[in-house]
Amino acid sequence: MVILYLILPLVFYSLVTGVIALILPLQAVTCTLLGAVVTFPVLCYWPYRSDQARRGVIPPMPFRFRGCLPVIILLGIGTCISVNNIISLTPLPELSSGFEAVRDTFYSPPLLIQILGPGVLIPAAEEMIFRGLMFAPLRDRMPFWPAALISAVLFGLYHGNLLQGVYAFLLGLVLAWLYERFQTLAAPWLFHAAANMTSIIAVNTGLEILTEKTDRFVFGTALVLAAVLSVFCLIRIERKTNIKEEEV
């Protein structure tokens, strides 16, 4: 029953997106964007709102960042660049044969659709599903790390191919940690949106060189600076929130 409760929101989101794709002759990203627009308010009004009310969290998604709003954005930027660059140093790009096709699909729509979809609204729907309706209920039943690992693995599998899956898994751990620290979906959503917007801006402005090994100096410098920025932001958030995880 618990497993069914956890996967139903994802099934609903996928079905809505699939139906839109069948009915409307639109690009995949646009269909996913419309799926997020339909799914998010439904999930927010019913399962998430009632689940948060049971925890005594009102409103269900408070915008409380404890002075860390810019730090969360910087963490999203730094994590996006550093994780992408680290993955580029592994054999994963060569092993992920379907990644280029997915990448082309992701960045082929007009810039406005990229910003509204992968940049803002799709992260909101994904955070509702994977952190709000998967991680949070799991966290009620187990310590932080098992709950974070399970939700991150599911988040990675959802993204389909190996390279994106590993990237999503690593980001999923940070996203769960942010939810744990701030106890609101607004924090992981902001991080997720910042990470996706970093990729969108890089691809559309030529800054993608930061994550490509064509210029090793630029690539290495970007990796080091992004990693340092990410560590600084993690430490800053840790100190500002100062929440001790439960030991079970």
Overview of the structural elements:
This protein has helices spanning 2-23, 28-55, 69-88, 92-95, 99-107, 111-141, 144-158, 162-182, 186-205, 216-241. By secondary structure, the protein is mainly alpha-helical. The longest helix has 31 residues, at 111-141. The chain is globular and about 50 Å long.
Features:
globular, 10 helices, 248 residues, mainly alpha
Number of strands: 0
Radius of gyration: 18 Å
Major sheet: none
H and E string:
HHHHHHHHHH
Transmembrane segments: 7-26, 32-48, 69-91, 142-159, 189-211, 217-235
Keywords: Hydrolase, Membrane, Metalloprotease, Protease, Transmembrane, Transmembrane helix
Domain CAAX prenyl protease 2/Lysostaphin resistance protein A-like: 111-197
Protein name: CPBP family intramembrane metalloprotease
In a few lines, what is going on in this structure?
The chain is mainly alpha-helical. The protein is 79% helix and 0% strand. The protein has one domain (64-241).
